[in-house]
Write a structure and sequence with these properties.
The complex is a heterodimer of chains A (196) and B (292). Chain A has 196 residues and is α+β, with helices and mostly antiparallel strands. Chain A has two domains: 52 residues, no CATH class; 114 residues, Immunoglobulin-like. Chain A has one helix and ten strands; from the N terminus they run αββββββββββ. In chain A, the strands form three sheets. In chain A, strands 1, 2, 3, 5 and 8 form a five-stranded mixed β-sheet that branches. The longest helix of chain A has 33 residues. Chain A is elongated and about 90 Å long. Chain A starts with 19 loop residues before the first helix and ends in a 19-residue tail after the last strand. The mean pLDDT of chain A is 86. Chain B is mainly alpha-helical and 292 residues long. Chain B has two domains: 40 residues, no CATH class; 198 residues, Cytochrome c-like domain (Cytochrome Bc1 Complex, Chain D, domain 2). The radius of gyration of chain B is 28 Å and the shape is elongated. The chains are: A alpha+beta (196), B mainly alpha (292). Chains A and B meet through helix 1, strand 2, strand 3, strand 5 and strand 8 of A and helix 2, helix 3 and helix 11 of B.
């Protein structure tokens, strides 16, 4: 440290000590590599985000989590799949300790889908594997995610945000069915495949 | 050391470079986050820049749900766990409650220790749970000829009082919130189906462990304690939830689970909880002696 005095004419360095210029060169090289990696990672995020609609849900709507069941959009009988006049589908779900309600959602394949969820107690996670659906469900806020299912099938949706003692038992599913298995329904009708 | 001393001198470019990098990253992130990513809405037209920024900040008023027709409203319960409700519950007066509780003795037993299979044991039951059930009976959210008639004669104040009195009878159902120690040693490979459901649940069917709400270990507002409850009563309630005869659980907390249970499992669970009456779980040892 102190014995390296830059002003004096450079004395021969002892064995094993690397000259400062060499260190600077190596540091610059690694800095460039690191910036390059950062750039690639940001590019990957932006490209996949834009091309697959994988982006943080930007919807900010607030709602009182305590009185949800007393009326309004998330009243019990308004949950489930609603078909809008333009054949798009709105699915309303409640995440609570420790269940999603309804615990099985039926959606026609190919229809534009809008999920609207909110929580009654703590933060839950809503994720459908192999789709762009992945959001936190925060009490007091309505999470909104849009997607279109291109393949029919059953998508399991375990809660992916630790929500308490019974977290591991909190799991539901989405059944994406061919449109002929999804009978046309009234505007005020709500369907689900939860056992009745 | 020589290099370190130079870091603040105006000739050293690195602090400026560092600040510029940080500022650059911030500008790029803000630009991407507000200007690019939030503009693309799947299934909907791309937003213009200004709406995207406002929406990202939560300032937009036109993001309300579409005004579609909604089915007729049906509420499972009038009770919501607001601070007002909780204040009502905690304002319960045990002395006055003990007078009202004399009406309960015929079915729910002396001091709320039921000996009948029709009526549940109420001694030690969480006050919030009793308060809610009384309100549900009063407004027909839960059906029972007898209890609906009795609850209609009680005021909100009376319900809180009687709930406080019954909750204070600590000699039967274990108190919920203080006993927060989960019982260990039970996993999903537990061979006894009742113990498995109570302590581990069944994730494949979306069943959380009973104990995550009913204790020990977990607690959820409005959930009753079950250890020591009448077996026939538990079994009947599970069946009513499963068949939709009882619908006063807020957001189908119990209906979602009960629908998945088989009749055998309901029976096993009921027997397990009733059996806890003879052999209380170790975490509550001494908390409730055998019935007189």
């Amino acid at each position: 440290m102190a014995e390296i005095d830059t002003k004096s004419p450079s004395p021969p360095l002892p064995d094993g000590i690397i000259p400062e210029e060499a260190i600077t060169r190596a540091e610059n090289r690694w800095l460039a590599i690191m910036l390059g990696m950062l750039g690639v990672m940001i590019a990957v995020i932006v490209v996949t985000g834009v091309s697959n609609s994988l982006h943080p849900p930007s919807n900010v709507e607030t709602i009182d989590p305590v009185t949800l069941h007393l009326g309004g959009e998330f009243a019990e009988n308004n949950l489930g799949t609603a078909v809008d006049p333009d054949a798009s589908v709105t699915v309303r779900l409640i995440a609570e300790q420790y269940a999603f309600v309804p615990d099985c959602t039926r959606i026609p394949v190919g229809a534009p889908v809008k999920f609207r969820l909110t929580s009654t107690d703590v933060i839950h996670g809503f994720l459908l594997p192999a789709t762009n659906v992945n959001t936190m469900v925060v009490p007091g806020f309505i999470a909104e995610v849009r997607t279109t299912f291109s393949r029919p099938g059953v998508y399991n949706m375990p809660c992916n945000e630790f929500c308490g003692y019974g977290h591991h038992g909190m799991s539901a599913r989405v059944e994406v069915v061919p449109s002929e298995q999804f009978p046309p329904q009234d505007a005020a009708e709500r369907t689900s495949c939860a056992k009745q | 050391m020589a290099r370190d001393r130079n870091t603040v001198s105006p000739i050293n470019p690195w602090p400026k470079v560092a600040w510029a990098l940080v500022a650059g990253v911030a500008v790029i992130s803000i630009g991407l986050g507000f200007g690019v990513l939030s503009r693309y809405q799947q299934n909907d037209p791309t937003l213009d820049l200004w709406s995207a920024i406002c929406r990202g900040l939560g300032l937009n008023a036109d993001i309300a749900p579409a005004k579609e027709s909604e089915p007729a409203l049906r509420t499972p319960s009038r009770i919501a766990w607001t601070t007002h409700t909780l204040d009502q519950v905690s304002a319960g007066d045990v002395r006055h409650g003990s007078f009202i509780a004399m009406n309960c003795v015929a079915c729910h037993g002396q001091n709320g220790l039921s000996k009948s299979t029709v009526a549940p044991t109420l001694a030690g039951m969480d006050a919030a749970a009793i308060f809610k059930q009384l309100d549900d009976f009063r407004f027909g959210k839960r059906t029972s000829g007898v209890m609906e008639a009795i609850a209609k004669t009680l005021s909100v104040r009376d319900s809180a009082d009687v709930a406080a009195y019954l909750a204070a009878q600590k000699d039967r159902l274990p108190p919920l919130p203080p006993a927060r120690i989960p019982e260990s040693g039970h996993g999903p490979r537990e061979s006894d189906p009742a113990k498995r459901l109570v302590y581990a649940g069944d994730p494949r069917r979306g069943i959380a462990p009973c104990s995550s709400c009913h204790g020990p270990g977990g607690y959820k507002l409005g959930a009753p304690a079950l250890h020591g409850q009448q077996a026939a009563y538990i079994e009947r309630q599970l069946a009513s939830f499963a068949q939709g005869l009882r619908q006063n659980d807020i957001f189908e907390q119990m209906r979602v689970i009960a629908r998945q249970l088989t009749t055998d499992e309901m029976q096993a669970l009921a027997a397990f909880y009733a059996g806890a009456l003879q052999s209380p779980p170790t975490t509550h040892a001494g908390a409730h002696e055998d019935a007189p």
